[in-house]
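REQUEST ID: PR-0412
SUBMITTED BY: lab tech R.K.
PRIORITY: routine
TASK: structure prediction, single protein chain
INPUT:
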Amino acid sequence: MTIGAVERVHPKMMTVVAIMAGLLPIMWSTGAGSEVIQRIAVPMIGGMIFSTLLTLTVISAIFGIVKNFSIAPWRLATPPSAHEKR
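STATUS: complete
OUTPUT:
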């Protein structure tokens, strides 16, 4: 059984690193208008960290619980054999 987090680590981390690489220089800038842009960059960095933790831990745990929970009781019944005739 493959857990969703295992399949999503590489694409998620590539996205987060690329976005953070773009946002960190904006946070450290001191030029004209940097105060306004820094106010936008800080929540975006926090959101990227939070979304990464949420995607890789919480959502994967919920997926694992739901996947193991049998919603369809008819799947538990054994199917009739191909040799049986009614």
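NOTES: Residues 4-68 form one domain.
REVIEWED BY: pending
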